[in-house]
Here is the input.
Amino acid sequence: MRMPRTIDVELTARCNLRCKYCYFFENPDIEYIDLPTDEWIRFFDELGSIGVMEVTLAGGEPFCRDDLKQIIDSIVKNRMRFTLLSNGGVITDDIAAYIKQTGRCNSVQVSLDGSCAEIHDTGRGHGSFTGAIRGLGILQKHDIKTSVRYTIHHLNVGDLEDAAKLLLEDLALPGFSTNAASYFGNCRKNADEIMLTHADRIKAMKTLVDLNKKYNRRISAAAGPLAEAKHFDKMQKAFDENAPAFTNGGHLTACGCYNSKLSVRCDGGITPCTMLPNITLGFINKDKIIDIWQNSPTLNELRQRNQIKLSGFEFCKGCNFVDYCTGNCPGLAYNYTREVNHPSPDACYRNFLQNTPSP
Amino acid sequence: MEEIYTRNPVVVLREEFDDWAILYNPDNAEAVGTNPLGVDVWKRLDSQKSVGEIVAGIKQEYTNVPENAEVEILEFIQKLLQRGLIGISTTL
Here is the structure.
């Protein structure tokens, strides 16, 4: 691509919550400040001028910005669409009506991690379930396309059936997506309390696969137990059938997001991905996005990551599944090993099998 | 009766490497991938020229234009119209 298709923007360092597994907070690479409105407007003018198609607004909590209408205005003016990631708690009728009238909102994603306050609030704090449900209701009232992200962790893994019932039956959402509390930000601090144990992970995989049958594949995942259940199953079948390597297998391919998008931290630092805040490629309104996209040696080196063979890593020595493995998220790899160019131990199928007791 | 088409001003043209491009309508998220010829046609849809004039212009500009070029250009224009990327400005 000549220019990025999408830019993920962490619009604010403010948030009404302090979730135990938030990837954003407690990160030494981020300066937790809010840029003034005109900095973002200048930046969105630049994105519009180069043909960026979509912006994802996250944070922090993007609805905490008092100037959100002005920011959305500048996105619309620059012929882009937008998506918002929210905890739902500070969404008002006024801002929802404003979003709807733009006609440019792809969706608003609300985090909901439990079927009731007792479960949801264990990870996100008192009152957050009520806020999320209220926010979802406001979005639905204004007919805004709404999605829900359920982050699975040690304290809510037993709640998946009830959560699916709430989201897919009671709230009649078309679907919801899942992931897992991962070793980023606040979660690193609370890892022992909050991260899935191996037994939790197996339980979540089985439950989600069963629920997806029951609910006709209305649950999705790009990461976490459901995605792993699907991918591990595919890897095992390929190995059993002695299948040729997957097209993206055998190398550090990961999701390759840095081939289609870039991210911006709340302090204006431009990064390859929100999961790689440690790699600063430049700063908005000082460095040109198009220059970074096309010429940054760091970014180009990252894009060459898919040429690095997994078989060359001590970590992967003797693994039967190397040809079917992508090495997974470089952000997680960095947090576990301090190396970006390393497979992520967290998503390793061989590790997973070695920890799984025989039936 | 001949229709004159015009570009939807909100549509974004993303000219990519390797001779391809995307026309993207942010109002409805519709996108059409195309080649340099499609981009050329797009740029000629200026509410001034008829389809016949556009085809004639293309034939003048390029060598070895296939005989069915007019049909393909018409199909392309219809696709753009269906997806809200262009509109009809006048009907002669």
